[in-house]
Amino acid sequence: MKDVDDRRGIAIVGMACRFPGADDWREFWANLCSGIDSIRKFSDAELLRAGIPEKTLRRADYVKASPVINGFDLFDAGFFEYSPREARLMDPQQRILLEEAWHALEDAGHHAGSYDGRIGAFMGSGGVVTSYLLAHKALQRGTTGGIEHLANDKDFVSTKLSYKFDLTGPSLNVQTACSTSMVAVHLACQSILGGECEMALAGAASVRVPQISGISTARATSCRRTGPAGPTTPMRRGRCSAAASGSWCSSISTTRLPTATTSMR
Q1: How confident is the model at residue 89 (pLDDT cuts 50, 70, 90)?
Q2: CATH code for the domain in which residue 26 is found
């Protein structure tokens, strides 16, 4: 087998994530190794308090469970220089991506403001229209280019992050449905190899609002009633992946392998 050319190698130097049952990548890895099921099951009382109609709970195709994440409704607005009003209007996907991208840089041992080089950003978020926007009718009265628009449209996720972190590398909003984060990583690697930046942040977020809500498994949807689905679950009637219905966020920092190796010495 031909040896890999180190000059074209890419190293992951920092990671951050928030998944159901895991607030960071170390906890996430521990859950994977232990085979822990992080799907949360809801009681009827919980769902009723969350505003789910009683008639919905009686539906045969309604599953009273969903992947949820901690702290989706929390945000240090002052740290990221947002006003309280802006923070309330902002889609949780954008808030959490800011937090996890910052953590990914910290995990890499770097600070955006003092890094000697260009840092690119390749990010995406779920939904053409965010569930947060749909769940809050007051946000729907905003105007094009207003705070409500900029805080909830997926087309501003990466560029807003670059602006807040004062990044000088390329910034690209990525949206390829369930493969968004994987494509973002690919684009980040290509950007580094092409000399567009020395480091890149890549990642995506999908946050479902409200969090306390079950999943509809009606026919012709991508959800199943018979339990958790895996990547190799047969696509039979009523049996297909429900991963897109949950909430999660991940971000990584990448750079050239020789650069990462030199930094470790």
Answers
A1: confident
A2: 3.40.47.10
Q: Could you read off the pLDDT of 47-88 as tens digits, one per residue?
A: 999 889 999 999 988 999 988 999 988 999 999 999 998 998
* Cα 51 to Cα 29, 47, 214, distances in angstroms: 34, 6, 11
Kindly state the tokens that stand for 213. Answer: 């809500």
53 belongs to a structural domain = yes
Residue 123 inside a domain? The answer is yes
For residue 212 the two structure tokens come to 């306390």
The SS3 assignment for 83 reads coil
Considering the domain boundaries, does residue 193 fall inside one? Answer: yes
Q: How far apart are CA 119 and CA 31, in angstroms?
A: 31
Cβ atoms of residues 17 and 103 within 8 Å: no
Structural domain boundaries enclosing 216: 20-264
Other CB atoms within 10 A of residue 204 CB: 29
120-134, 159-173, 189-203: the lowest-pLDDT one: 120-134
pLDDT digits (tens, 9 = 90+) for 99-121: 999 999 999 999 888 898 999 99
The candidate with the shortest Cα–Cα distance to 36, out of 27, 25, 47, 44, is 27
Peptide bond into 210 cis (omega under 30): yes
41 forms beta bridges with: 65
In a domain, 14, yes or no: no
Q: How many domains does the chain have?
A: 1
User: In the Cβ-directed half-sphere of 76, how many Cα atoms lie within 13 Å?
Assistant: 6
